[in-house]
Amino acid sequence: MQEKRDTSGCIMIQGPMPIEAERLAARLENVEREETGNFIYYIGTLAGHTVVVAKTSKGMENAAAATAVGIERYRPAAVINQGTAGGHDPALQVGDIVLGARVTNIGNLKTADRPAGAGSDPFAWKPMDVMASEGSAGEDKNAERIRCYEADSALLAAGRSVKDRYTRGRVVEGVIGSANVWNNELDRIAWFHQRYGTSVEEMEGAAAAQICAAYGVPFLCVRVLSNNKTNGGAYDPTTAADCQRFVLELAAAYLRREA
């Protein structure tokens, strides 16, 4: 029986879909593949350091479960969640990368009380922090705030240190919004951008951040704009590969700093 590799202290890099994980894993050396549930983990080396690439599958629940399984199984020193995203900020162009100085769940919302026949007003919805109370967060006034997860300072510094190597677009710091929803309504997108400062939206980052926070594992979310409806930026799937190259530069810089 093959001896299990020691992965403790590795970096785990996540991607939800094959375009965001399998191609990334192919850039590693000495790769082994492990599978459990919906999740696939590729264990390899980058510049002599162990890296685990996790294909989490799309969505918040998948991202949370894959993160917990990955932390328990591989004991990473840090987690980087990366992939594509849709723009919320009109100043950002397709191909720009957002380092998530903050990641927030924009799907935990509470509606206002409205009687039958009064319709729905999503612009009146309030944030609901489900981590704020052991009781009913929906009745706790302290829970009517948005939950944010701050980036690990060392991971963020590593991203800053290599941003000039990225030539597809700009590398900026911003707020990444996550939820199991795909927003195409421009007014709704503008509402999130104005109220919560979101730069982009995707469907995994905040869930992974929540699990990393529970385990005390340093975390950073990195997202490339594959489209931006706010300024007519058309979908470009090739941005995924550009993001992966940048994230490997970031990971290598982080490993050098921590060595």
Number of strands: 12
Strand order of the largest sheet: 5-11-10-6-12
Distance between the termini: 31 Å
Radius of gyration: 18 Å
State the low-pLDDT regions, or none: none
Main β-sheet description = 5 strands, mixed, barrel
| Helical percentage | 25-40%
Secondary structure category: alpha/beta
How would you describe the shape?
globular
> Which series of helices and strands comes N to C?
EHEEEHEEEEEHEHEHEH
Average the pLDDT over all residues and give the rounded result.
Answer: 93
Strand content: 25-35%
Counted by DSSP, the helix tally is 6
Salient structural properties:
single chain; 259 residues; alpha/beta; two-stranded antiparallel ribbon; globular
3D structure, described in words:
By secondary structure, the protein is α/β, with parallel strands linked by helices. It has helices at 18-25, 60-74, 153-161, 186-196, 205-215, 239-258, and strands at 11-15, 29-36, 39-46, 49-55, 78-87, 97-105, 109-110, 126-127, 148-150, 171-178, 198-202, 219-227. It has a five-stranded mixed β-barrel, surrounded by four helices. β2 (29-36) and β3 (39-46) form a beta hairpin. The two termini are 31 Å apart.
What is this structure, in a nutshell?
The protein is of the alpha/beta class and 259 residues long.
Spell out the blueprint of helices and strands.
Elements: E1 11-15, H1 18-25, E2 29-36, E3 39-46, E4 49-55, H2 60-74, E5 78-87, E6 97-105, E7 109-110, E8 126-127, E9 148-150, H3 153-161, E10 171-178, H4 186-196, E11 198-202, H5 205-215, E12 219-227, H6 239-258
Parallel strand pairs: 1-4, 1-5, 5-12, 6-10, 10-11
Antiparallel strand pairs: 2-3, 3-4, 5-11, 6-9, 6-12, 7-8
Helix pairs in contact: 1-6, 2-5, 3-6
